[in-house]
Specification:
The protein is α+β, with helices and mostly antiparallel strands. Helices cover about 55% and strands about 15% of the residues. The chain has a four-stranded mixed sheet with strand order 5-4-3-6. Strands 1-2-7 form a three-stranded antiparallel sheet. Strands 8-9 form a two-stranded antiparallel ribbon. The chain starts with a strand and ends with a helix.
């Protein structure tokens, strides 16, 4: 975490650095950047690595998270080619836990409320590999009650949607690939785990996406939510496909958690 504190206003700066990225990832990143630049041509704007790999805090469970910003949207055929390419990468580089290869237009990134979390991640935990650095157009990350409120709105909305996905019997896909119940369980738990930062920063004026750190801190500061955060952190890395078990867990712990957070904001 890198902060600038002035008159009780704390700004979070980017902790991503190129020299934080381990050497084993560099050839892959160069390969993906070359593919993306060729595929998109003049539509290519920026190429970023975000998340734990960009800050050197990756583990064996870390995905290689790639964000490609385009000048305009991509075609359906290009979406399919990027999806097939991510499948190729996963088969070629089996030591990487997973690949998230996302494309997004500049306007959507800047304006769409559904990309609030991506904007925050790019602003605070990313490395520009190629192209124009568009992070100057992203809002500053200031730790205050307003930012906690925005985190609450985003986390609660995403949680509700993901819960529907998880409990539904309909086939669901992400980045062009059908995903099973374990995938959606892990994603729900990531959202819940990281949302705890929105509460912690109200009192401790800190910010991180590190699930292990947030979970331990929340369990210690708010013992009533220890079962929620300890189990959620476990299911991030070892998710269960048991919908009945997860539904019971969510119904028991999550509503009261969001009510508590909302009360803090009032």
């Amino acid at each position: 975490m890198i902060f600038n504190q002035d008159n009780n206003s704390i700004e979070v700066f980017n902790i991503g650095r190129l020299d934080n990225i381990k050497d084993k990832y560099l050839p892959i990143i160069q390969e993906v950047e070359a593919f993306s630049s060729k595929e998109l041509g003049v539509n290519f704007e920026s190429f970023y690595i975000r998340g734990s790999i960009s800050s050197g805090k990756d583990t064996k469970f870390s995905d290689l998270d790639i964000v490609i910003v385009t000048k305009r949207g991509v075609s359906k055929k290009q979406e399919i080619r990027f999806f097939m390419y991510s499948e190729y990468l996963q088969n070629k580089y089996k030591f990487v836990n997973g690949f998230e290869l996302a494309t997004i237009s500049f306007n959507k990134l800047i304006k769409d409320k559904n990309y609030f979390n991506l904007r925050v991640n790019l602003k605070t935990n990313s490395v520009l590999i190629a192209g124009k650095d568009i992070r100057i157009f992203l809002p500053r990350v200031i730790l205050n009650r307003q930012f906690s409120k925005r985190m609450f709105d985003y986390a609660y909305s995403e949680y509700v949607d993901l819960k529907k996905y998880f409990l539904s019997n309909k086939e669901k896909s992400y980045l062009g690939k059908s995903r099973d119940s374990s995938f959606w369980c892990s994603w729900i738990m990531r959202v819940l785990s990281r949302s705890g930062m929105g509460i912690l920063m109200l009192n401790e004026k800190e910010y991180t996406n590190d699930i292990r750190y947030i979970s331990k801190k929340m369990a210690k500061r708010y013992p009533q939510f220890e079962p929620l955060f300890i189990q959620a952190a476990k299911w991030v890395v070892e998710p269960t496909p048991d919908k009945k078990e997860v539904k019971g867990f969510l119904n028991k712990h999550v509503d009261v958690y969001f009510k508590f957070w909302k009360k803090l904001l009032n």
